[in-house]
Design brief:
Structural class: alpha+beta
Order of helices and strands: HEEHEHHEHEEH
CATH superfamily: Glutaredoxin
Strand content: 15-25%
Shape: globular
Number of domains: 1
Strand order of the largest sheet: 4-3-5-6
CATH topology: Glutaredoxin
Largest sheet: 4 strands, mixed
CATH architecture: 3-Layer(aba) Sandwich
Radius of gyration: 15 Å
CATH class: Alpha Beta
Number of strands: 6
Amino acid sequence: MGRRVLVGLTVLILLAGCSSSASPTPAAGGAVASASPARYYDAKANPQANIDAAVAAAKADGRRVLIDFGADWSNDCRALAADFASPEVKPFLDANFHVVPVYIGHWDRNMAVEDKYGARSGFMPRIVILDGSGVALHKSNAIENASTMSVAEVMTYLQKWAPSPPRTPAGGG
């Protein structure tokens, strides 16, 4: 519980000091480098092009695609973005997934993309896991309460949907 309060305060501080021009940048591992979880979702991105590129990369390298539908105003989305950027989760995430954050605003943006992957819901974040052929392996209802999940629970979730066997992060982490 104390960790969540600390993460929440950190996110609020980042929100207060974050410039509106900041946007996520792809990291070497294919996930988003999240210096600021407050700017995790890019409202100007072309989500279908990003998903298509991630599927092509997953086909080539055997990782999975994790599509994260959400918005930066959502506490649960910010909590999940912070967990994804944490030193406990990020190495595993980068080793096993290509992450594509998809901005859905107030359920009024990129709805056609959500519909294409069967992810439409009144909750966020909404996760869809694809294989290297673009086939949906999983659509999440459980992650919508990300602000109440521990880092260990997020890792358990990711381990369940990682390629089998999961890849070990570089450096053994």
